[in-house]
Design goal:
Layout (H helix, E strand, L loop, with lengths): L11 H16 L1 H21 L3 H35 L2
Helix pairs in contact: 1-2, 1-3, 2-3
Length: 89
């Protein structure tokens, strides 16, 4: 009975940052950029308070989401818009 491990608390913000990192990759564009910035802030806060693997993974995912979103906004978005305009949709 005395073998109980104390329940870890304070990991919620790291989990939220990780989830936002995944969503930032999926959503791309302006929404992905916003999600990656918020998720990155959450993961940085998590790492400063209580470093976790999920917080580190969230930082990586948010960085990837940020880069993909910037590429989408400045490169792929205008190409897609030009294609849609040329087709006549």
């Amino acid at each position: 009975m005395g073998d109980k491990k104390p329940k870890r608390t304070g990991d919620g913000i790291g989990i939220a940052g990780f989830i936002l990192g995944v969503l930032s990759i999926v959503m791309m564009g302006i929404f992905g950029l916003i999600l990656s910035i918020i998720g990155g802030i959450f993961c940085i806060i998590q790492q400063k308070n209580n470093s976790t693997k999920l917080g580190k993974a969230g930082l990586v995912l948010n960085s990837i989401g940020f880069i993909f979103s910037l590429l989408w906004i400045f490169y792929l978005g205008p190409i897609l818009a030009q294609y849609i305009n040329s087709v006549g949709y």
